[in-house]
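Objective 1b: paired records.
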Amino acid sequence: MSIENFANELPPVARLTNLENYLVEEDRTSPIDAFTRGIKEILSQGSEEFLQSSGYIGRLLVLAVVASAESYFRTVLSMAMELCPLSKANASEKTINLGGLLWHGHQRYSYSAFDNASFSSAQEIRKATREYISFNLDDSIFKIPLEEFDKVCQFRHGIVHGDGFLPGKNAVKLDIRQYDRPVRITIRYQQLQEVTAVVNTLVVLFNRQLFSEFCHRWAIGWRRRADWRPESEGESFSRIWAIFHSQEEWERRRDRAAINQAACLELVRNTYQLR
């Protein structure tokens, strides 16, 4: 008998077989709608009774909520960078992962920029937004939502890297009192609702403000460039609308009759006095 056998038995050999069995093709929709649908599906898995009886499902659902937000930021920044000539100029000196470029191809090259990026902290979101699309997150709007999102991400770190046990570094950042024994992050129904509300607030605010910024760029900044084509202004505005407008939310809005692309375009023209 070998010494190792006193610890535990030798495990069987395990391999992943056909990797394509793990993958399903999906079409990209607007980032905000993909996020909204993802959150709806996540919450449908977290009933009060189920989360009360399960010690780990709540933690997994928190990971899914944060992952949905990360996917939103990665996708919306990629699309924004592809669309906006000012963003392209701002990001022109950035390096791109070659493997990502080979995988995504020419048509989706911008996704390669964020293959190695993590959007699970306020600092990373601020940095990527500033460095790639030249958009600074105004503290008067984003300070509190980003701080609350950071709290969620501290818990996320413990769930991912500590099997749910809260690491000391994250506990100190959260200003949590010391316990006599290790503490495990426990997510019940109320905690899942709070986490989701915090993440949703940040994403929705971000989407609103970036949409407004891109309407401003369409009306002012893009028109000052030598590559501006007046005959394509309608097409370029439609692309902004396609990226940021939430069809999912529109279907639930009481004022949806007044919310349409033509009305928005008219308001932007009037706001910036375009003829």
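Objective 1b, second protein:
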Amino acid sequence: MKTLYYLRVFFFSYEFVFLIFSAAIYILFGEFLEKHFLEVSINQDALKWAMLFPVSISGWTLKDGIGVIFPDDKTSKILHEWPDFWRLKAHFNIGIMNSIIYLLPCMAVWFIDGLSKFDGAWFFFMFAVAVSINAFSFYTAKIGIRSALIRANE
């Protein structure tokens, strides 16, 4: 049962839906978009520093994401005693894994200088946005958990 839940969390997530949607756009409209991409002048300095975006977002997730399952010293015990804590932990584990998995394609494209080509730039963009969506999910989870814990302490 837990394995199925982990699979559900991975495949039925905003990040995964975005990646599927982006792949569909690429397949359906890639040639059209590539023509316009080739017309745009790309700043080479921006390409050198482009990797900072997904790395910093992923770094924030890895550093501050722990606040989802350990909000603070007082309320963490309440959260860990919650019967459905394992579900929260599944979302946390998948989110941390996604943060790393979605960062790797960005790094690969950047290392091979693929950002100057449409295919590489699209691939980089897809996964950089997926990392951002993942981080936003952690951010909203932290807010939701803090709110629930405040209500639980009343």
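The chain has seven helices and no strands. The helical segments are 2-11, 14-39, 44-49, 52-64, 76-81, 85-111, 118-153.
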